Amino acid sequence: MNPTISALVFAGLAVALPAQVTVPATAASTDLSTERWIAGVGTTLRQQILVDQRHLEALVGREIDALLFRRDFGHGAALPAVAFDAQLYVSTSPHAAAAHASELLAANHGPDWLQVFTGHVTVPASADPSGRAPTWQSSDVVRIDFGTPFPYRGGTLCIDLTATTLAGRSFWPCDAWSDGATGVVRSIGTSCQDHAKVLKVGGTQSHFVDRVGLVPGGTVACSALAEPGASATLVFGLGELQPALDLGPFGAPGCKLHVDVIGAVSTVVVPPPPEPLTAWTGGVVRSTFQLPASAGLLGGRFTTQWVEVVPGRFATTNAVEATISGTLPTSGVALVEARFDGHTPPTHGEVTFHAVPVLRLEPR
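Structure (tokenized):
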């Protein structure tokens, strides 16, 4: 080939190949709907972000060399400089799509997983964004330059960041976006727990189910306020008892069972209140499980209720009827998040399609 023609061809390719890819593409110059802390910024976390190939077509066959997160421009205040220690791994996930992400963190990695960074990350101070359009300038981003570039050959990308905060719980929220799929919850009945030891929202409710997890493939989180030191068991069923079972004859006057019980998920000891100055709120218990990523669950329903046991008596929370989303997640991204103490690496996380960090990948 003529040298002049070759030069023109290569120049054309250089122009055609983008210098970076933003996920989602609409966030390149637009602030999106919500915010999230990323690992190391504010708290010690392990976060995996799975991204479908359709968001990354421009990177296929290239080496990814940097990962960036942008501050939330909807948060109208200056943000302080922070720092964290991080380990970052990248691989091609064995899952055909991010919607099939697993709570088992190792299951989201493929055999090509590669440590692309380990070390110290400094996050800059960022000025109040009021009146500014969203940008990716250095003072508005968390940037991690890879020590070893990752060759991306296509498929679902798994980005795995484990980070330990170094400068306390500094507030540095990053831009995030959510899938439209979400479930519906309905509270049933009234908590009969000791009102002097347990807060009841609206005077009736101490058990809650997070509706954003009610999506096929998502992690369902069932939480409750309960008396510290008690044993708490989450029972579940596929329907509501009508009429509810009066538990007075069984030693729990004023309490009712609303769940047509088919099983129990877990039994835990209720911890002390999260805020000692408001001991009357009770301790917080939480149980999670992942829904299968199956369209057969769309619109399905189940009911849950906590049973609290202390020596000599027991009580029940309100029940919750949970309805699974009528649509599958379609955003093409998933977040698997695990909190830990900074010493023992977690093996399991919680899968969500809600408030997934906006990110940018830069190739070599």
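Residues 170 and 297 are 40 Å apart (CA to CA). The chain has two domains: 20-180+329-363, 184-323.
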